[in-house]
Amino acid sequence: xxxxxxxxxxxxxxxxxxxxxxxxxxxxxxxxxxxxxxxxxxxxxxxxxxxxxxxxxxxxxxxxxxxxxxxxxxxxxxxxxxxxxxxxxxxxxxxxxxxxxxxxxxxxxxxxxxxxxxxxxxxxxxxxxxxxxxxxxxxxxxxxxxxxxxxxxxxxxxxxxxxxxxxxxxxxxxxxxxxxxxxxxxxxxxxxxxxxxxxxxxxxxxxxxxxxxxxxxxxxxxxxxxxxxxxxxxxxxxxxxxxxxxxxxxxxxxxxxxxxxxxxxxxxxxxxxxxxxxxxxxxxxxxxxxxxxxxxxxxxxxxxxxxxxxxxxxxxxxxxxxxxxxxxxxxxxxxxxxxxxxxxxxxxxxxxxxxxxxxxxxxxxxxxxxxxxxxxxxxxxxxxxxxxxxxxxxxxxxxxxxxxxxxxxxxxxxxxxxxxxxxxxxxxxxxxxxxxxxxxxxxxxxxxxxxxxxxxxxxxxxxxxxxxxxxxxxxxxxxxxxxxxxxxxxxxxxxxxxxxxxxxxxxxxxxxxxxxxxxxxxxxxxxxxxxxxxxxxxxxxxxxxxxxxxxxxxxxxxxxxxxxxxxxxxxxxxxxxxxxxxxxxxxxxxxxxxxxxxxxxxxxxxxxxxxxxxxxxxxxxxxxxxxxxxxxxxxxxxxxxxxxxxxxxxxxxxxxxxxxxxxxxxxxxxxxxxxxxxxxxxxxxxxxxxxxxxxxxxxxxxxxxxxxxxxxxxxxxxxxxxxxxxxxxxxxxxxxxxxxxxxxxxxxxxxxxxxxxxxxxxxxxxxxxxxxxxxxxxxxxxxxxxxxxxxxxxxxxxxxx
Length: 801
What we know:
This protein is mostly beta strands and 801 residues long. The protein has a single domain (224-307, 315-800), classed as Maltoporin, Chain A. The protein contains six helices and 54 strands. A hairpin with a 5-residue loop joins strand 50 and strand 51 (745-746). The longest helix has 15 residues, at 2-16. The two termini are 49 Å apart. Its main location: membrane. It is a multi-pass membrane protein.
């Protein structure tokens, strides 16, 4: 009987499992530290602390070396036995600088940034909370290393190292967001993400095709959303936050709430946000070229030009947005982890402001030009399994289904025909990733990926006088785009100071499109592409000492032609129309970069990266012919025929530099500077500046922190881009750029002075306030179709429980 009782107790203990909770605190203040990363490389386990500085580390039992680290604190390495002897309480000493932090964007697995040859940055939640970005595009701009272009408030198109749009890759919780209609022109998809529901944001600079495949040429932007948290015990744990915000420049009214509730094996997180923005006011001091004194209204059955009460108001730019997120996590034991996520985002209609500035024959070209509601939905399931075996130590399965919907609605001035072109994309993806440690010095990451996009595009023409609706030409053909790939990435650490990484990936991509010739007499009815791409990378990191880091990296990347490249019909600029080209091939990039980071006397940190990227077989818009003709009538205008073609070689080179100084008394100064030059080959063999290589830009910040009070004074700035330094295709866009003394377009230099502060009134209640663009500058970021906000007062309340 006794033996049976012992056996039963053993089975119960085995079933319930052994739990142990660690608590991590600041050594000086004894305050709990959130988002501390607890890593065991030997067990390939990663855990992070919750808002109370606690984490369940039962999975690390028996580990000899457990790394406990967080940005701003000294790394501490302890064994599980030592942790147990300290009653599972750890005190971290604040550290001015750190050359290592845990990131996931480089390989989809958690790694130390000190082992990665590529440049990777992480945008801290604390900085996001202080800066209060209105959109996810603004969140990226907080880094000071990503340039943001805007043509409307409901937008934001990042530029990284001279590349943008479909030459950059977005991922959400490890799932590819890029779809088959991501275009070469500026895209707004990043605003579908919720900054309040983003736990961590990382940017990998340079090629990322070995891990992520097509489009990862200039960089990868990785967004990790809020994760459900277990209680670590049988009782429930509930936490969350509520945020509200108001901004004066666009009369922003925002509300957000999220709640986390978890038990020992089940955990949930629910998030909801709502934004409402009025028309944006620009600054008083700047070029008059940016002022628009009128807008078009439909009055008594005709379009009329109406003078605005204030030329500083950019009408139409108002819009609203809502986001919802629900996550469920189940961890039956230490080996298995199941996470399901649902994401939904939808905007209102919003005006394309730069199109409303176009003039034809002395009158506005458009009476209407707006985007319909932009919708994004994602269901994703992530399954992780940890068990040492012959083939892997950990595996991850990611299954995702996404839906995208967008539309363009326009009507010419004094024209009764309103055109509506709508697109829907159903995107499916499956990723299978493995990690295997080979001895103490080597680790191999490998996996496979399958992606399928189905594109549905329709066109309608509505007579606004009679209400008659008829079919019209769609923007895209009915099409599918898919890819299947395998990859491997190998890491070798011959010593604690040297890490070598190399990887290779093969991708097969297919495109099938069927063209409707009812509206255009194309000399073809279908397009089929079945091709492959081989990419690779090789890099090294060397740490001469604890305060030094040197890295060098070579990588290749590719972008496969998508449905937007092959099949689009649109008016790229007045007097030009882009038509389909079914004969496209992939473009390839070759990138070299070197970097150095050095800490001086725990007072000054300097980092510097230089890079060069060559883009071969680049897909660019060039003059073309349709049925032997070089021009056609499009929307009532005789237009030059153009098409996307593999017709150029482009190169980009530049530097990224940063410094940070820590002074006594909680004062620190930091600065980031980015300088890039891009060149693109033209038809006649001459060279044009690249459109997406931003002028020199940067950010300088001065911070003061004392207990619960934080103040930041900072400046954002951009250098001038002269007329001859603009891309040839940009020089005629008077609706975007200012005019110099000779009447030529150019992008003036600008700067803003800004102030932000946060104060934690109580443990659970805080306020944030700020003044952006204090001197009320009227400026327009390079290539943007609208001016940035003028003087802007921001006020927010934050409640955590």
